[in-house]
Amino acid sequence: MLDYAALNALATVVREGSFERAARALNVTPSAVSQRVKLLEERIGGALLVRGQPCVATEAGLQLCRHVERVGMLEHELRDALPVLGAGEAGERVTVRVAVNADSLATWFIAAAAAFSQQHGALLDLTVDDQDHTAERLRSGAVLAAVTALAQPVAGCNSEALGTMHYVAAASPAFVQSHFATGVGARTLARAPSLVFDRKDALQARWVRRICHREVETPRHWLPSPQAFVEAARAGMGWGMHPLSMVAQALRDGSLVELVPGSRLPVPLYWQQARAAPRLLARLGDCVRAASRTGPHALA
Fold first, then answer.
1. Over the stretch 96-137, which tens digit does the pLDDT of each residue have?
2. CA 203, CA 194: separation in Å to the nearest integer?
3. Torsion angle, CA of 66/94/281/113, rounded to 10 degrees?
């Protein structure tokens, strides 16, 4: 029989990143957390954590963390079905780990997260990654669900189309006049500063390939914030690929203009979740589908 106090200690260390923060979350001493994890490692016969800043789970540790997460969701459902068991203490609330791309998080996904947490009393642990890479988090077992650009289901998961996020290449009128007065092409793009979210962001490169029919190396500002990304474009710092729903008003009022009208880049998004998962995860999927299809930031 597994020691669930020890399993919970392991999962909390992985979630919080350190023994000290895990101890505060569990209201015990760091030595108690360390002892529980050590006993579990002795029982398993191998390391479950790579100690560091932060602590991260080994492959075996990830498998146990996934098990703890699923058990927590099943217990949450059991309390719903059997109210006599009580709602549980705040520290017993189940946490669901999800990977989502930054632009979805900045636009439509928060409505899904809020509806889910309010309706079901569960907590969310959101990991932000590029839409082309969130599926890797699902594949590794670091999360149980993800918003991803990958249509092909990850092994053991279901995949469902959510809709399409449309991106527009835009900059301030002054920037366009300064850098693209002779037109948008390989020569001008190679000189004009661009805005790139992070090292995984390939949207600008994809758009440039569509326009120029070849690779073009562009100067880059790195700006890992969707809101700052838009403000930097409005301020004339560079051109970038923006979710249409985030810049629609700026395009209407003229504070941003499209570099090449009609050249918007569509990015289909999908919801993937573990196939053999508790109903709580399916309820999160319901909230995600509803939020992606309604409101001012709905996907097309």
1. 989 999 999 999 999 999 999 999 888 999 999 999 999 998
2. 11
3. -120
